[in-house]
Amino acid sequence: MRFLSVPAFAALALSACSPTEDTGGDVPDAADPAASPSDEPVPQIFAATAWRTVAEDGARYTTQLDPDGTYRDLRNGDPWQVGSWTYSDGEQGKLLCFTPGDENGIERCWEPERMRGDTMRATSDSGTTIELERVDYEPPSDEPDSEE
Question: What one-character-per-residue DSSP string does 34-65 give?
């Protein structure tokens, strides 16, 4: 398995979707859209969800998908990457895309499959397939990142 977000999909947050096998459930429940960093509404199907994957080297990556359209990636429990996420259901299929907050961040998109229990597979725009495990979502802390 590979980490989803090669720059991000850190876990995913990704569920719902391409009909490959009907196992009784799509993704998380949908809710009303919230404002994203770009002021565009974000589909809530992935909002407030978290996903984990294990890389070939054994590193554990967890992606927290926040309702405001931002994401937070953890590598082995430590902060690793942040950025924004979008989900679209258009002509090219259902895509969950991640754009790292870095100045030169490149958007990476994943096509999520249907949930199978607490797991789901997702395929990147470059053809890499990973398996994601849904884990408990943890809202961002209100504490500042560093003390002034």
Answer: EE-TTSSEE-TTSTTEEEEEE-TTS-EEEEEE
Asked whether the beta carbons of 139 and 50 are under 8 A apart, the reply is no
Query: What does the CA dihedral 133, 78, 99, 129 come to, rounded to 10 degrees?
Result: -30
d(CA 64, CA 121): 17
Q: How many residues in total does the chain contain?
A: 148
For residues 71 and 61, the answer to whether their CB atoms sit within 8 Å is no
Could you tell me how far CA 31 lies from the centroid of its own chain?
17
Residue pair 33/45 in contact (Cβ under 8 Å)? The answer is: no
13 contacts: CB under 8 Å, gap ≥ 6? 46, 49, 50, 51, 63, 64, 65, 71, 85, 96
- Tell me 72's DSSP state: E
pLDDT tens column, 35-93: 334 444 445 689 999 999 999 999 999 999 999 999 999 999 999 999 999 998 877 78
Whole-model pTM: value is: 0.70
Copy the structure tokens of residue 92. 């090219």
